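Quarterly update from the structural biology core.
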Amino acid sequence: MHLGVDTRIFRPIISDEDVASRRRVREGLGFSPDDIVCIYTGKLRMQKNALIIARAVEILRLTGHPFRGLFIGNGEEAASIASLPGSAVMSSIPFRSLVKYYQAADIGVWSGDESISTLDAAACGIPIIISDAVRYREHVEGNGLVFKFGDIDDLCRQLLRLMDPDMRRQLGSHGAEKMRKGWSWESRAKQRL
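Predicted structure, tokenized:
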């Protein structure tokens, strides 16, 4: 049985305070209200290949698209990611603090193998993109997209598909509801029993 997500912590924006927090976090990171912020959380190691996300964001940014990257984690790729003007890097933070960063983002992107962070991001109401290196994809069906592992052009294509705010909203809402109903720790415990 797949792991679950604490939907009491990880949840979509539901209050005026959440909206204000989103604005503050984005401003603090230097992101504008019009930027499409792609978040990655986890190890910044070569095996996870987060650098490809930063490079895709940079390609799109340099071609006039309003993409930015937010990377939260530590590892040998951190310096390379931070050197790209379109991306911000933060050290690892306590998991309970991640919710405000997911809520400040527009898309969650994971480029390597499976990550539990995809569930947290989906529960916060943002669409997710994963690579086809992830074999188990039930948590992405209907609320995310898949790109070919290591293929930066395909990753750029998938990101461009999510430029449409209505598509992001639809996928994000579906993901938050799916996480609440079938992937919360409570629902996982009931399924197990």
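The chain has a mean pLDDT of 94.
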